[in-house]
């Protein structure tokens, strides 16, 4: 599959998402040559993505897929949300999810650890401050050491 086709999907998905007050989070195209899964993950800037939002996005993009030349025999279109344990991808997300519980996996050790789970207290271009519930301590995590981060379910 060509990058050109993927770029077309991204462009159209961003256009439709914007028209619906949503954001494109991610696109994955998987599966064998003849039958692909086109997974489009959408997000809402201020609230959780509902099933209705996914359905509306799907209804908007399906006619477009039917009107273009697709480089494989058939496909399944899957539209979803990032989920409650969504990936956090940078400063924008760290600020957006301030006060939410998150898990950070680091590429370097801080206090002899590479995993921190706590509430995001603050974030700037250089660091994220995480308040760990168990130790009741704040930790400064340099942004350039974050290998992976995601929201956790806060019970």
Automatic annotation (TrEMBL):
<dbReference type="InterPro" id="IPR035956">
    <property type="entry name" value="RimP_N_sf"/>
</dbReference>
<feature type="domain" description="Ribosome maturation factor RimP N-terminal">
    <location>
        <begin position="14"/>
        <end position="85"/>
    </location>
</feature>
<comment type="function">
    <text>Required for maturation of 30S ribosomal subunits.</text>
</comment>
<keyword id="KW-0963">Cytoplasm</keyword>
<dbReference type="InterPro" id="IPR028989">
    <property type="entry name" value="RimP_N"/>
</dbReference>
<dbReference type="GO" id="GO:0000028">
    <property type="term" value="P:ribosomal small subunit assembly"/>
</dbReference>
<keyword id="KW-0690">Ribosome biogenesis</keyword>
<dbReference type="InterPro" id="IPR028998">
    <property type="entry name" value="RimP_C"/>
</dbReference>
<comment type="similarity">
    <text>Belongs to the RimP family.</text>
</comment>
<dbReference type="Pfam" id="PF17384">
    <property type="entry name" value="DUF150_C"/>
</dbReference>
<dbReference type="GO" id="GO:0006412">
    <property type="term" value="P:translation"/>
</dbReference>
<dbReference type="InterPro" id="IPR036847">
    <property type="entry name" value="RimP_C_sf"/>
</dbReference>
<feature type="domain" description="Ribosome maturation factor RimP C-terminal">
    <location>
        <begin position="88"/>
        <end position="154"/>
    </location>
</feature>
<dbReference type="Pfam" id="PF02576">
    <property type="entry name" value="RimP_N"/>
</dbReference>
<dbReference type="InterPro" id="IPR003728">
    <property type="entry name" value="Ribosome_maturation_RimP"/>
</dbReference>
<dbReference type="GO" id="GO:0005829">
    <property type="term" value="C:cytosol"/>
</dbReference>
<protein>
    <recommendedName>
        <fullName>Ribosome maturation factor RimP</fullName>
    </recommendedName>
</protein>
